[in-house]
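I am still learning, so would you mind making up any protein sequence you like and the tokens describing how it folds?
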Amino acid sequence: MKFKYIKSLIAISVLSVASCDVERFPFDAIESGQSFGSVSDAGNWSNRLYVQMRGNVYGLLTYSQDVQADQLNATSDYGNRNGGPHRWSFLADDYTIRDVWQWQYNALTNINTMLAGFETITPANAEEEAELNLYKGEAHFARAFYYHNLVVRFGKMYDPNTATSDLGVPLVLIQDLDGNPARATVKEVYDQVLADIGEAKSKLQGVTGTAGSIRFTIDAVLALEARVKLYMQDWAGAKTAAETLINSGKYPLYSTADNVKNMWHRDLTGEDILNLAVSAPNELPNTNSIYLGYNAAQDFFVPDFIPSKWVVDSYADNDYRKNAYFLKDDLYILGSLRSGYWMVNKYPGNPSLFTSNVTNYAHKPKVFRIGESYLIAAEASFNAGNEADAIKHLNALRVSRGLSSVNLSGTALFDAIKLERTKELAFEGFRLDDLRRWKEGFTRRDPQTTEFIQTGPEFNTKSVTANDPKFTWGIPERDRTVNPNIVQNTGW
């Protein structure tokens, strides 16, 4: 999709003709159609696809949902950074909403341009034809990924009973600079996501998944399919896709405290179905940097947000994730040193990616990992009426993280699955959407302290009902100004 005010960040510069001589081009730019002359050109577009995806995960696209949810408290020195989502007071012109929408639609503009351009390329031989087919599969995978992200954040949560009328997001597959697309229904968006997944499955079938892959593989397609079908309440489909990954044996769960910690702190990739390539100093990712705020000169931390006590306490002391996800250390807030408080430490920065002797919080972004697959398999199995498989997958994850097996059924089992999902995927951007899927509101509770956090009904005691309209983000106001056919979400 390309709105009138958004310029495409295409892989090869595109000329905007400003003179009468349309036959001449600058030495460093070409017209976009000229960038599809060969399969090699298609490869350049594919490389750009990966670069742009690296810029569309982590950072604002991950932590905004967690800041909005119920696991964090704003410190007194947070400076109103991410304050709108945290207070639930943000409007449709908030930079969070604007940027998340724009960055992903910008990527979709390029993908649609790619797919159209690829059809004009004539491969020289069978080898080139196979290579071009692979690039097409990558583009379809990425388009499914972005549209699913967008419809989850800006559309109604999928409900099989109302999806044909609920509003999703504008769905555009062919670029039209003069078009004013209305919002497609949730079902129409999901139908397109599934169609793109189908194309990606077909074209990437021969790209075998391996742990730590930095390129899209058939396993990455399955991981996306499992996630999408979980959100669709297609329990059988989600279960099948997730169990295919689990049963492949290619992504064994880490089962030691050191490996679980280094999975995050040192970017061990044995559980990663897809991560994205980064390198220092010039190809670094977005960072989840709001949780530590390390002051190197004085050797203390000044975080914007700290985890609530109930969150830290939900991890048993023998849970390997506790010391991987959290750090207990000194903070400096309101001009005073505060000793012995927990901070989120899931993203401390991988030393191999530092650009100085101080952390830059950079990590290889984990797009899909096997821990999520176990949780999808457990939840889907439970909802499909197969409690035996649900508890099998739940216990496999628990035991790998240092915990004992449980023997539960009914509501207690489902609560245990939800709790394990909350713990395993903490601060990876899932919590707000999980609460929406489960039709649960929340009340922030049990902070570590009230001495140096923001307090009051917009902060540490914030209460939100399950049907609060701001669980779904508003359509960015400037898009509605440019395109009057876009209907705003209720409550914005």
